[in-house]
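Progress report, Aim 2. The chain analyzed during this reporting quarter is listed below.
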Amino acid sequence: MKIIEQNEGTKIPYNVVGKTINFDETVSVNLSKYQKDEEVVVDVCLDRDMQLGFGLNGSIGQYVWYVANIVIPPKEYEMVETGQVDENENPIYNKVVQPLNMNDVTIYLWALPDNYIIGGGF
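Predicted structure tokens for the chain:
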């Protein structure tokens, strides 16, 4: 996993367990569930009350600070022979999705507001 600090200041604490990232023991992101056939960016943000959530412009526009941007690469596939052949005697393959490679994930971390208390909000 690549970690890029976007600016100076205290960053949100996080830990990685398997394919899940936990931010400040509050928000968890299972990266495998977000992975699609195209690159996906998950924005972890704070609202005015210092509560963590997703998306800077949530449904009511309440999130106002980026905490982290997680860039999840597109799914990768492997063609696996089925042991069968088609009517022309060509082998038949199945397209099998490969597990997410965490080394290909990038996290951009942003400085927390001064009034954010780690482990407690504000």
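The chain is about 5% helix and 45% strand. The helical segments are 31-34. These observations will guide the mutagenesis work planned for the next reporting period.
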